[in-house]
């Protein structure tokens, strides 16, 4: 009887979960690709999605499966990494949602549109201005530019 051979024995891990994802439940996260995506302002970024969660790492795992279906249709994209972003909250405030809106507004300002896997933020976002004013704009933009090549 012919023996079966193992495949992908030298492959990278398919899923890597760090403790950072488990620290907080209410988080904001970014899906970052291994390849640049060109956006309308002729700038490139590897960010494909900006999201938020009240359920922490569970939502990131759900997003990974949904985003993967859309993202892996593009040529040359092989990997998606997820980065957790959080901030110190204020009592009675939904700081993780403000952070997501601030990231989306800043991304839209720099690159001309929201990340291509995002649905939220595609239209006019005039009422989101207060979210961006709660954060240091330069630090938000510096964080987003970290994912440019």
Any idea what the radius of gyration is?
17 Å
Mean pLDDT over the full residue set:
83
Written as H for each helix and E for each strand, in order along the chain, the element string is: HEEHEHHH
Strand order of the largest sheet: 2-1-3
Oligomer: single chain
How many DSSP E strands? 3
- Overall spatial form: globular
Structural class: alpha+beta
Q: What low-confidence regions span 5 or more consecutive residues with pLDDT below 50? A: none
Largest sheet: 3 strands, antiparallel
Tally of domains: 1
Distance between the termini: 51 Å
Question: Can you give the helix content as a percent range?
Answer: 25-40%
Compute the number of helices: 5
Strand content: 15-25%
Structure notes:
Helix content is 34%, strand content 19%. The protein is of the alpha+beta class. A hairpin with a 5-residue loop joins strand 1 (27-38) and strand 2 (44-53). It is globular.
């Amino acid at each position: 009887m012919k023996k079966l051979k193992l495949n992908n024995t030298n492959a990278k891990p398919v899923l890597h979960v760090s403790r950072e994802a488990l620290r907080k439940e209410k988080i904001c996260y970014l899906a970052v690709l291994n390849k640049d995506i060109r956006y309308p302002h002729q700038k490139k970024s590897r960010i494909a999605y900006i999201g938020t969660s009240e359920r922490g790492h569970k939502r990131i795992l759900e997003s990974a499966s949904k985003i993967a279906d859309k993202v892996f249709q593009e040529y040359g994209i092989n990997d998606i990494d997820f980065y957790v972003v959080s901030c110190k909250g204020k009592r009675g405030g939904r700081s993780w949602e403000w952070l997501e809106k601030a990231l989306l507004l800043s991304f839209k300002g720099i690159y001309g549109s929201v990340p291509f896997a995002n649905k939220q933020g595609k239209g006019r976002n005039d009422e989101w201005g207060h979210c961006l004013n709660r954060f240091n704009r330069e630090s938000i933009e510096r964080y987003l530019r970290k994912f440019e090549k």
